[in-house]
Amino acid sequence: MNTRQAGQDLDTSRAHSARMYDYFLGGKDHFEIDKDAALVAAEAHPGIYVTARENRAFMHRATRVLAREHGIRQWLDIGTGIPTEPNLHQVAQSVAVDARVVYADNDPMVLKYAQRLMRSTTQGRTAYVQADVRDPGTLMSAVQDAEVLDFDQPIALSLNALMHFITDPHDPYAIIRQLLDPLPPGSALAMNHCTPDFDPVTWNKVAEVYTKSGAPVQFRSHGDVQRFFDGLDLIEPGIVCCHRWRPDAPADGTEPTDAQISLWAGVGIKR
User: Fold this and answer.
1) Cα–Cα distance for residue pair 77/156, rounded to 1 Å
2) Is residue 207 part of a domain?
3) What is the pLDDT of residue 47?
4) What are the backbone angles phi and psi of residue 171, rounded to the nearest 5°?
5) Is the distance from CB of 100 to CB of 147 less than 8 angstroms?
């Protein structure tokens, strides 16, 4: 793992979506340019901090459900972002100590902090590969070369707040198919995706902020998100607003609105 190279490759001349997300979550692994862009996004949508937290909470719940109810013991998490505890492998291994997780991201800053992602249980395993989801063939080759996941056994593909950064010219639906094709029956797709369905004016402003910061986005409708799950069996409750997918009881008894969250979420099982 060449963390020195990662430091040299860091682009601090423009904001990065992963580092902006770190700021929204209250992390410290971002630069001033990321904070400035995040604050502009928050001015357009003050609830974006809650959106970030609910995105993270969905990943936790989906991981636990797949481990407990569907026997999944392997995960491929793409678009990992900067490590924020509990990470996916910590959630999975809290249910199944032998869970195996491979993380993938194209941000050199994630590589710099990847040691945080390697603290597995002795029974399980974790690994990190630096790869770009827009090149799924190369990404999957790198994952297989890591020799952590058994491609003869079900694998959960975890894509949280990622695919809205893949605009239509990159053919996001073909990318999903190429990622799912090597996975055996019983594997899963767990993902969420920003949407303008509930508040198009606000989310168009948010899209402008990200695009101007150098991270083009394409927020999609419920129907467009459902297409990602074509050929999969959706588990209950289907594709719903993120905080309504198998929710835990709110700690303070309150619940955000769909417009505030504006994330479609779902989990599907491969036949």
Assistant:
1) 8
2) yes
3) 77
4) 55, 70
5) no
Predicted confidence at residue 7, as pLDDT, reads 40
State residue 122's pLDDT score.
93
What pLDDT, on a 0 to 100 scale, did the predictor assign at position 253?
A: 63
Q: Is 171 helix (H, G, I), strand (E, B) or coil?
A: coil
Q: What residues of the chain score a pLDDT lower than 70?
A: 1-11, 16, 250-253
Which H helix or E strand runs over 241?
Answer: strand 240-241
157 three-state secondary structure: strand
Sign of CA dihedral 133, 134, 136, 138: negative
- Domain CATH number, residue 200: 3.40.50.150
Inter-residue contact 234 to 268 (CB < 8 Å): yes
The conformation of residue 142, written as its DSSP 8-state character, comes to H
**Strand (E) positions, 131-221?**
156-160, 188-194
Distance CA 199, CA 262 (A): 8
Measure the CA–CA gap between 243 and 237, rounded to whole angstroms.
12
What are the phi and psi torsion angles at 84 (to 5°)? Answer: -135, 120
Q: Which domain holds residue 236?
A: 3-247+260-270
Number of domains comprising the chain: 1
Predicted local confidence at residue 237, as pLDDT: 97
Taking a C-beta distance cutoff of 8 angstroms, is the pair 130, 106 a contact? Answer: yes
Bond into 86 cis (ω within 30): yes
Contact criterion met (CB below 8 Å) for 48 and 41? yes
pLDDT score for 1: 32
Token couple for 219 = 């927020």
- pLDDT of the residue at 39: 86
How many Å apart are CA 152 and CA 202, to the nearest integer? 44
d(CA 24, CA 188): 28
